[in-house]
Structure formats: C-alpha cells, structure tokens
Amino acid sequence: MMIKTRLLNRKILKRILVISPVVLVALFAAIQLVPYGRDHDNPPVLADAPWDSPRTRELAVRACFDCHSNETHWPWYSNIAPISWITQDNVEEGRDELNFSEWGRRQETDEIVESVEEGEMPPFEYTLRFWSSISGSEKNELIAGLRRTFGDGDSGERERDEDD
C-alpha cells in the first residue's frame, strides 16, 4: 500500500511539473490580449521648463524625462504585459505630478530636489535603467541644477511666468 501511495504521489507531482509550465505560458499569452499599457503616445511639447543651464536639462532628459515629459522613450519591453502595465501607469502618474513638457500648467515642484536627493526618484523598478545612464557625480550635478532651476521647494506649486 505504501509503495502504491508513493507511486501515485510521484505521478501527481510529475503531472503538476508538466502542466504548470503550460498553464503559465498560456496565462502569459492571455494577458498579452489586455490592451492597457500599449498606448504609447507622446503628446506635443507645449512649453519646456525654465532650465538654469543646458547641462541641467541634459541630465534631466537622461534621468527624468521618460516619466516626466512628453518625450518618453518607450523601450521594446514596454509592449509586453505585465511590464507594459507598470510602465504605462508610471508614465501617466509621472506626467500628472510633474511634466517638463507642459510647463505652462501648474506643476508639483516642491519636492523635486528632495525626491532625487533621497533616492525616491526614480522609482525602484527604473533604478537600474535610469541611473545606469547617470553617474554619481552627475546625480549631484543634477541635484544642484534642479536646486538652481526650481529652488529648494519652498513655494509648492509653480506656474511658468508668461514673460519668460
């Protein structure tokens, strides 16, 4: 009886090991049919932020623009669910909070410097991708440039002056 039970358990385990990958592949294929996360539009740039220097803008482009501008670079993997869902959500949230391409509207500038200094930006899932393109000294340079451009964040929301 004991031997039959072991053989039966082995057969069940073998079936699970064979069926599980098939089920996972089928689920992965099925989630590709969900359309969210593939609407990769880049609306027009309406007004650029009032950068203190071209260098600060260059560093911000490399470190921030994929989520905080209308100039998002959509990598190939941003078309594959569930990564596409996370990417789309992050870009939508990033553009809502702060959009360097729509400077004529109200912007959340009060925490720009602090969020970069404290490592809150970029989000964890982008850390390897973003900060691999900007060194530690460049990060410090970006922080200094953001501070010169936007101040230390005392003013809360800012709107670009029409005279600029």
Work out the helicity level.
40-55%
- Terminal-residue CA separation: 87 Å
One letter per element, helices H and strands E, the order comes to HHHHEHHHE
Number of strands: 2
Count up the helices.
7
Main beta sheet: strand number and arrangement?
2 strands, antiparallel
Write down the overall geometry.
elongated
Low-confidence stretches: 154-164
Structural category: mainly alpha
Order of strands across the biggest sheet? Answer: 1-2
The Rg value, from CA coordinates, equals 23 Å
Query: Beta-strand percentage?
Result: under 5%
Overall mean confidence score, pLDDT: 84
Topology:
Layout: H1 2-31, H2 54-63, H3 65-68, H4 83-97, E1 107-108, H5 112-117, H6 127-131, H7 136-150, E2 157-158
Walk me through this protein's architecture.
This protein has 164 residues and is mainly alpha-helical. It has a domain at 54-158. The protein has seven helices and two strands. The protein has a two-stranded antiparallel sheet.
Give a brief description:
This protein is mainly alpha-helical and 164 residues long.
What attributes characterize this protein structure?
164 residues, mainly alpha, two-stranded antiparallel sheet, 7 helices, elongated, disordered C terminus
